[in-house]
Every structure is written in C-alpha cells, then in structure tokens.
C-alpha cells in the first residue's frame, strides 16, 4: 500500500511525457489508486466513528451505573453526540465516492453504440482496470452465424494453415 | 440505559459436539446424497423423433416470422406468409396428420405425459422423504432443549422460529433449540451445496421451488393436452392479419438524419 | 492473461490459432485429467465448470487446424470420459478428428459411411447431420450437401447457423435468389445481427452485378442493397463493412446516374433519389476515411478492425480519389 502511494506521483509525472494512449493508461492507474486511497480513508473514518460510538456508550453505562448507586435515580439514556453522527455520515459518503470513482466506465446502453464499440475497439474496449478482458466478452455475438463452427471444413483449414506456415518459413528464410 | 440482566443458562459443553455438529453434518450429507439420488433417478430426457421436432420448430418458425416480419422486404414476407399459412392450414407439419380434428388424448393415458409426471413425483419424493425422516429423528432424540446461543441480539419476533419445541415465554430469543437449528440448516446450507456440488445441483431446493413457480413457457406450449393443430391454425390467423411494414422503409433518411458527418 | 478460448476459434487468423493451440499442453496440464462422475472425486476436486468443456471443444478444433493431433486426441478423451461415447456433440467432435486425419478419399468415404450409420439410428442427431453436410461440401459434392441441408432445415427450420450455411452453399453455386432467401431466414431468427444485414447487402450487390441480369432486377437488387447496408450501419456505429458496402453501392448507382429510374410498384423498394445517394456516398466516405485514419495511427479505441478490412477501405478511398483527379 505504502509503495503504491509512493509510486503514484511517479506514474503521474511519467504520463506527462508519454504519448496519448500511454497517458490514458497511466491516468487509469492513477484513477484506481485515487479511488482506493479515498475508500481506505473513508473506511478509516467510519471505523473511528464506530469506535467513538462504542466508547461513548460504555462511558455512559458506567456513569449510569455509578449514578444509580449514588443517587438511586436512573438517568435517561442519552443519544450519541452530534459529531459522531456527522462523522459517520461523512465517512459513508467518502467511501461511496471512492467506490464510484473506482468503477469501470459504464457499458453503452444503446444497441448501435454497443455494437459500434465492439467493432471499433475489439477486445480493448472491454477490459477492466487491471487490463484483463471481460469474461463475458465474446466479440460480435452474431459472428457465429457467419463462421458456422458446426460446419467447419477442417481439412481446408488444415491445408490453409500448412500453407501459412510454409509461407512464414519462406519469409523468415529470406 | 436500563439493561436487561443477561440470562445465562448453563449448558453442558458436550451439547455442542453431540448435537449441533451431528445435525449439521447429517444435513449436509443428506443434501449431497439427495443430489446424487436425483442424478441417478433422473431419466435421460426423452429423445424426440424427427416428426415431433419438426412440428414444434415449424410452429416456432412461424412465430419468428410473425415477430420479426419487419426485417423482410414486402415480397419476401408475403411469399413466406403464404407458404406458412398454406402449410399450417393443411396440417403439413403435424406429427400425425391423421388425427386432425380429433380431441387431444387424455394426458393421463398418454405414456409420454405420464413419464414427465413420474419424474416430477420422483423429485418431490426425493425432497420430502429425507426431510421427514430427519425431522422425526431430531424430534425423537434432541427435542426440548436449548443447544446454543446466537452471538447477536434478536427481537422477540424470532422466538417462534428459533425456539420451536421449547415453550418458555420469557427466554431471550437468542437461545436456540435443536429443531430450529435444523430449520436454519435447511434454508442456510444453499451456499454450501453450491460450493460442494456446483451451482446447478439438485440439492438446492430453493431453486427447484423457484422453477416450479416460474412460468414454464416451453413446456406449456408443447405440453401434453395441447392440440398442435389448433396452435397451427391460430398461428396461421396471426400471420394473416399482420400489417407488414419493413424496417428498411426510409432507412436512408433515418441514417442521414441520425448520423452527422 | 487467461486464455480466451471460450469463443469459437474457427475464424481466427492462422497466427492466433497457432498461439491458441500452443496453449493446449499448459491447459491440459492445469486441469485434472481424471474427470469421472463418481461422487467422491467430484467432492474432492470441487465443482466442475461448464466453460471448461467449451474450452476443450475449441482446443480440439484449433489443435486439429495446426496439426497437433495428439493434443486433440487428449482433449477428446477427456470429453468422452465426461460425457460418454454416445453424446451427440462428442460424436461430432470425434468425426471431426477422423475427418482431419483422413488420408485420401477412401478414408473420407469411410467417415461418411459412419455418419450415415449414426443418422440411420437417430435421425435427429443434428451435430452429426451438420458434420455430414460439411464433409459432403468439403468433398466437393455441393448439390448433395445442399439437399441434405434442406432436409435438415425442413425438420428444424429455426436453426440460424444451418440457414447461413445453406446460403453460402447456394452462393458458391451461383444461385443468388436462393442464397438471398436463406440469409433472409437467418435475419428472421436474428433480426438485429448487423453483420447479417451487411451480408445480405453484399449478396444483393453480387446478384445485381452478376452477368446477364435484367435492368429491372438490377435496380431492385441495388435498391435493397443500399437499404441493407444502411440498416447495418444504423445497427452498428462505425461499422466498416457496412460503410464500405454503402459507399460501393452508392458510387456505382451514381455512376449509372443517367439511367431513368423505373417506376416500381409500391410492394418493392424504390431506388433513393440522386441527392440522397450523394449524401449517403459523402457520409460513407467521411466515416471510412475517419476509420482508416484512426486505424493507421492505431489510436486507442480504434484497434478493433482487421487489417485486411482497413486496407480494402483504403484502396476503395484511393480509387475514389484518383477518379476525381481524372
């Protein structure tokens, strides 16, 4: 985690000199890092709020117990102080912000945009932040209707492949 | 804060090992056993002969043409419609054209339908019998006492669920009886079965129940007791009343208006 | 990166197929070899994944293609161990392996005989029926393949893949109207398939430009080709194939220009007017040149097109430019 945080300025700095695609990739990484940092900070804040609330209740009950033994009159249960409540709410929103920043870009909703994305970007358009291709990405789902895997002419494909290999060898030999 | 004094019941720690674990393990094993019993009992889906396949898929074909008529140009649609209507009305696609017009056979006397019902019965039995057995086993041996305390507080509403068989009015709902543990196991072991047997296992009763509730479109459409001839005639009528329009009408204008250079 | 062998490897380039089949040994090693349906072993080895079997299937095809028969046999053995000998898909795969290894026509006839025998026992075995048709076609018996396919489609008219194959067979025989009819059936089953719309446009264009086509028919085919390409582009932004066809067809129609457009009855599509055609041509040119430009620079987000398609588009654009200069 510490190393990641230390590395982030380096990535950002390097991105200034890089060409456009690299810059985008680097900014992607920086984005994930940012979102993770924000989420971690929010979680920390939330944990702190929880701890404060717990401490406060414990203190209250001790005070109530001592008060009961001293004056034998039960004090009403007091509610949490406002600052703890505010801290809880703010930390929740910070976590939300971090998570939202970390999500991958939304999938296109319109059919033609989605189809165009498949055609234009290929696998690249369907990678997550780590760079792995989506599991359910399958290219054009209708390409099966043209490639027709159940009718594959395996002998022809074998021959073509052998020719391709020979040609490749020839190229390498030159 | 006025705290309810914490109820403490002294239990023999051995209860934990001799009741809680056995019930859980037995439940898991029964689930696994039931899975394999269903797999073994399941008869392979009955092969349809060519004629039955033809009957069903021809009807589906008609439905497809009706639903997607807009991708066709008018002449091609008309040609298809005329051919389909003629074939439907003459009963060319029927499995046995001789039995046209006769009332459909009683599903009870149809051996195919009986087989389907037997399969359903088998599944039901595989579910009901082990559950009954285990419940009576638990009732006979472990009923009537508290076996564990849940690590989190609960409201009073849970009393009837968690303390079945222990009729004590003032007891904290966190205390659980053995029969309640059994019920929790029934509903809570789903992920365990998924983990052990894969996600489409037969032990998952909930999935079965969902299936029973959900609409079974395919099965109903070609189920026993439906007269295919009537379906064909109805489909022919549906096809005949279509007012054809093509998605290609004015597509250039749409394209030019929609996409800016 | 995980091996992307979940989709069919039939249309991969030779290099990609080679890379895929080279993954085979690692994949075979990584997944346990003894898959049985005995309860204990499944409990121990964890749940089986359905993708795994798909991967085996695809590996068989790509290994056969690259000549790695040994790995193909190994995959097939595992599939047989899991699904049994008489599973329809396993039968088809075994047939595929035999076809690939067959030497000479005698061996192929042998395989064909086997297929016939299986089909005699069970005439609804669609995978085997498809293999038989593919084998017939591979052996050059086109009309046999076509009639077998028609028979298959008679009892299973909702099989889009088979309709598409039928269209291809008819096309290779030069029977354009039949090929168009078959591809229209595919569209009925998959109404939003943009590549099939483009394919239909291509077929119409081929039918229109075939030698000896009457003028009326020519216009009818061309009119629908324009519309089909336009529809494919409407379904898919920046669809290279669709724009290519649109440009090709509209350019040709503009060159024809002077020919009086015949008055068609309203049941058929009319050719669009000259101004519409010009605008379509402009649109297609603009989009194509943008695609070519971005692909040449290999910009991020424009790397999905195949090189051959981009090269063809560039050639078409260059052709256009030189025509204007003249």
UniProtKB/TrEMBL annotation, chain A:
Subcellular location: Endomembrane system
Keywords: Membrane, Transmembrane, Transmembrane helix
InterPro entries reported for this sequence: EMC_subunit, MMgT
GO biological process: protein folding in endoplasmic reticulum
GO cellular component terms, A-Z: EMC complex
Domain of life: Eukaryota
Membrane topology, record value: Multi-pass membrane protein
Keyword Transmembrane listed: yes
Family, as annotated: Belongs to the membrane magnesium transporter (TC 1.A.67) family.
Name listed for the protein in its UniProt record: Membrane magnesium transporter-domain-containing protein
From TrEMBL, chain B:
Keyword Membrane in record: yes
Gene Ontology CC annotations of this record: EMC complex
Entry membrane topology: Multi-pass membrane protein
Keywords recorded for this protein, A-Z: Membrane, Transmembrane, Transmembrane helix
Ranges that cross the membrane: 15-37, 127-148, 179-197
Localisation: Membrane
Superkingdom of origin organism: Eukaryota
GO terms for biological process, alphabetical: protein folding in endoplasmic reticulum
InterPro entries linked: EMC3 (IPR008568), EMC3/TMCO1 (IPR002809)
Function: The EMC seems to be required for efficient folding of proteins in the endoplasmic reticulum (ER).
PANTHER family: ER MEMBRANE PROTEIN COMPLEX SUBUNIT 3
Family listed: Belongs to the EMC3 family.
Official protein name in the record: ER membrane protein complex subunit 3
Automatic annotation (TrEMBL), chain C:
Domain EMC2 TPR-like: from-to ranges: 106-216
GO cellular component: EMC complex
InterPro entries: EMC2-like, TPR-like_helical_dom_sf, TPR_EMC2, TPR_rpt
Coiled coil: none
Intracellular or extracellular location(s): Endoplasmic reticulum membrane
Entry membrane topology: Peripheral membrane protein
Keyword Nucleotidyltransferase: no
UniProt keyword Iron-sulfur, yes or no: no
Pfam families, per the entry: TPR_EMC2
Stretches forming TPR repeats: 160-193
Domain of life: Eukaryota
Protein keywords: Endoplasmic reticulum, Membrane, Repeat, TPR repeat
Function according to Swiss-Prot or TrEMBL: Part of the endoplasmic reticulum membrane protein complex (EMC) that enables the energy-independent insertion into endoplasmic reticulum membranes of newly synthesized membrane proteins.
Similarity remark: Belongs to the EMC2 family.
Subunit structure: Component of the ER membrane protein complex (EMC).
Protein name as catalogued: ER membrane protein complex subunit 2
High-level lineage: Eukaryota, Fungi, Dikarya, Ascomycota, Pezizomycotina
